[in-house]
UniProtKB/TrEMBL annotation:
Gene3D superfamilies listed in its UniProt record: NAD(P)-binding Rossmann-like Domain
Name the record gives this protein: Prephenate/arogenate dehydrogenase domain-containing protein
Organism field: Musa balbisiana
Ranges where the Prephenate/arogenate dehydrogenase domain occurs: 57-333
Keyword Transcription in annotation: no
Length: 333
């Protein structure tokens, strides 16, 4: 059965890559070829053309590493036009995804994307944001971040972006490992930090969020503050336990139990992410330090409980005479 998904934008009959690398919509003839045909979200010709939930966006992914490429695959599969930029040259990977890649951030911004998705490591976000020539973007550009912490990028984007830009802070709470078989049922959190009132701006934001809804994600609107409070437990704890277990160098055995297999999977899931990501979860979430302290207290309390019981048992054995009486008493006689 043929796939119902639209083709990636660069192979889409409604787009072509011009000699300057710009993505342009081709003749209007194709636009109505199918009932399902999406409308391109084209600001260049003025307002967006019939922006609806199926509008096609030109999405720039800044930070085209592990997670950036993972997102690009699905964005492209839904028919959006993807352009990428990163510190390293990922042009071959971009090509294989049907995306265009620009080494120079000026070239990227001159493509006038509808949406810029910040997908850099948490630690490098500020430097990357500073390196973008924002003046080359359209005044109405939607900035989205997908960082695993939320208060930090929210404050950064509010501080650095011109007031005309829209800001949507998001966190797809899954990755290349946990989302390798699809995104259905996986949580996606967002906070509309600053979205203009006009119809094209609200539609553009809705269109971006719709990517995740269409994949079946559990889409949750939540403030960045609330996200970080929850994420310290959900995410930082999970990654910490995974990385702690990795230090034990656990190996599969012929008698693995289900529980043990879960631990091995946790190690694999968490350690396949970069240490930068884990470090970012600690450094840029205020709640992580407290969580680490609680974890240490919990471990010490558990150990104390175990050793306390061991101590009681040992004492019993030490002070019990072979005939069941108190050895202490026997000595007195
Ligand atoms: P990451 O190690 O957090 O980030 C890698 C990306 O950051 C690469 O594109 C890399 O550029 C760029 N980068 C790192 N240091 C840089 C620097 N000094 N200057 C410029 N760029 C730099 O790994 P990731 O898994 O790809 O995550 C990317 C973002 O997505 C993070 O903010 C993370 O919190 C978020 N996220 C990840 C997951 C996940 O499961 N992996 C899930 C949800 C959200 P190069 O490509 O040029 O090396």
């Amino acid at each position: 059965m043929p796939s119902l998904r639209p083709k990636p934008a660069l192979f889409n009959p409604f787009f072509r890559l011009t000699t300057s690398g710009r993505l342009r919509r081709t003749g209007a003839g194709g636009a109505m070829r199918a009932m399902d045909a999406a409308q391109v979200f084209d600001h260049e010709s003025g307002a967006s053309e019939e922006p609806d939930q199926r509008a096609r966006l030109k999405i720039a992914i800044v930070g085209f590493g592990n997670f950036g490429q993972f997102l690009a695959r699905t964005f492209a599969a839904q028919g959006h036009a993807i352009i990428g930029h990163s510190r390293s040259d990922h042009s071959a990977a971009a090509r294989s995804l049907g995306a265009a890649f620009f080494r120079d951030p000026h070239d990227l911004c001159e493509q006038h994307p509808d949406v810029v998705v910040l997908c850099t490591s948490i630690l490098s976000t500020e430097a990357v944001l500073r390196s973008l020539p924002l003046q080359r973007l359209r005044r109405s550009t939607l900035f989205v971040d997908v960082l695993s912490v939320k208060e930090f990028p929210k404050n950064l984007l509010l501080q650095f972006l011109p007031p005309d830009f829209d800001i949507l802070c998001t966190h797809p709470m899954f990755g290349p490992e946990s989302g390798k078989h699809g995104w259905s049922g996986l949580p996606f959190v967002y906070d509309k930090v600053r979205i203009g009132d006009s119809e094209d701006r609200t539609n553009r934001c809705r269109c971006f969020l719709d990517i995740f809804a269409r994949e079946g994600c559990r889409v949750v609107e939540m403030s960045c503050t609330e996200h970080d409070e929850n994420a310290a437990e959900i995410q930082f704890l999970t990654h910490t336990v995974g990385r702690l277990l990795a230090k034990l160098d656990l190996k599969p055995t012929p008698i693995n139990t289900k529980g043990y297999e879960t631990l091995l999977e946790l190690v694999e899931n968490t350690c396949s992410d970069s240490f930068d990501l884990y470090n970012g979860l600690f450094m840029y979430n205020n709640n992580s330090t407290e969580l680490l302290e609680r974890l240490e207290l919990a471990f010490n309390s558990l150990r104390k409980e175990l050793f306390g019981r061991l101590h009681v048992n040992l004492r019993k054995q030490l002070f019990q005479s072979p005939n069941g009486g108190s050895s202490h008493g026997a000595e007195e006689n």
